User: Fold this.
Amino acid sequence: MRQSRSYIAMKTDTMASEVLSSDFKELGEVAKKLANHAIKLGGFGFGTSFLAWVASFAAIYLLILDRTNWRTKILTALLVPYIFLTLPSIIFNLFRGEIGKWIAFVAVVLRLFFPDRVPSSLEMPGALILILVVSPSLLADTIRNDWIGVAICLAIGCYLLQEHIRASGGFRNSFTKSHGVSNSVGIILLLVYPVWSLVLILL
Assistant:
């Protein structure tokens, strides 16, 4: 009788240890899958943020070129809403605060009382600061972080690319003429971020 009881107790302990080991094994597999998914999502998120930085600074670079030596008939004013939609959140929130309000205030005062002393090259940056400061929350918080903003960026990039190729006299000339390579590369960089973001949204 005692032997049967000890046998049952040993069997119960063995079954309990097997169940616990299998549970721990399943928990380990679940944790491993969760970590892999987190790493993948984190990598995609980092890639999207990095491309947004690149696209934003590429648009600023093209805007500077347009205000200096890239004088074409292309509607480069579209770069202002593009920068608005792609500007990294840290810089965006900074300019929507007191710093941006003071810059916008000084820009308006100078434009009102000293219009002749304000160079035309500062019109676009001034307009960008004003848009950043006064834009409603629907644009600043909703569309900026939504697929609609990404689609607008893609449309702007495609338009600027085809207009640049047309103004250069063809695709080959856009990469061989003076300043053509830098302008073409800058516009292509405008397309990378929205294309990547739309691919992630559709996946």
Summary: Residues 7-11, 34-42 have pLDDT under 50 and may be disordered. The radius of gyration is 28 Å.
